[in-house]
Amino acid sequence: MGQMFPLSDHYEYNMVAINPAFAGCQDALSATILYRNPWVGFKDAPKSKMLLVHMPVDHDRIGLGLQFEHNSIGIFNETSIIGNYAVSDRHNIHKSRIVTILQAGFSQSAYQVSARSGQPGYRSRRQSNYL
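Above: the chain's sequence. Below: its structure in token form.
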């Protein structure tokens, strides 16, 4: 079951996915592409593809981020698109800042069993969620 949660892997490269307040924390446009295929050569092995883009706007006060993700394992597939809007308020006390985040997205999960599987009663199903 742990293979169904790809965010636990490569966390140092997908900080926006783990902490949306990280959007815009770097000084320039930042893009990361991740591909994960831990069981090379096995049929229906888990695979993850992710594109993360984020950038600062308005003199580092606002951060914008966008995340595209597709995960598959066996008959299950999940695709999601998530957008981040982060507004930071800098304080002179200990050079800290408070970040307020608005995050919205779309996720679609599906499973599909082919007609050749020989298991009667199984069929394809698709479910969409708004985050």
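The mean pLDDT is 80.
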